[in-house]
Fold this protein.
Amino acid sequence: MRRSNRLAHLALAWVLTLSAFAGAQAEVPDGFDPELWREGYRVFTEIGGMGCAGCHGRYGANELGVGPVIRGVDAVRIEGAVAGMQAMVFLQALITPAEIDAVAHYLAYLGTMEPAVVTMRRGEFEPAEVTLPAGAPVQLILNNQDRGDCTWSVTAEGVDPVVVGSRTIGAVDWTTAAAGTLEAFCAEAPDGRLTVVLE
Ligand code: HEC
């Protein structure tokens, strides 16, 4: 069950991420290369059996509280970290320069979206309010610590809900409109509301 949830989530994240590019949005990094992006995603989620995601979080936003936020870091910084960070030296013998370039491409893509991370616990959001930039690409990341799935929804036009399985992490991505206040919630627990301030 857990495994199929995880796979379903991955598949969904994949579709969402790819569909984000279908619209040829202005925020796509210069020189965006779908092949390199795919390879970077593979490295990010799989290298060394845990991926960079195993410590830095699936969204590279320190969701797990282990590795710091690495969205937008370049290849030089990754090389430096692999060579110098004690937690990461095991990667030195595993990762190739081509894989470093690919994962940097993937991180450049994540770096185009401003992240906010919230946790859902016993039907409540922690924190209960986040602030994101108005008129910019954002990624609202949910760490679902509850026993049930969360259909993660935002009260904004054109934002498709994403199912975040129990004890997994998922995200909705969109480009915010003008300044104002939105709400995000799990359809299964509508009493718990997250206030999203755009400014
Ligand atoms: C086993 C856990 C672990 C894995 C796997 C891991 N990291 Fe790290 N990473 C860390 C920790 C912990 C730090 C912070 C170390 C410190 O500050 O002392 C770090 C630091 C970094 C930094 C430096 C941050 C900065 O501000 O310059 C970068 C860049 C980085 N990691 C990228 C990656 C990439 C890319 C991968 C995958 C190829 C990866 N890490 C895999 C744990 C990990």
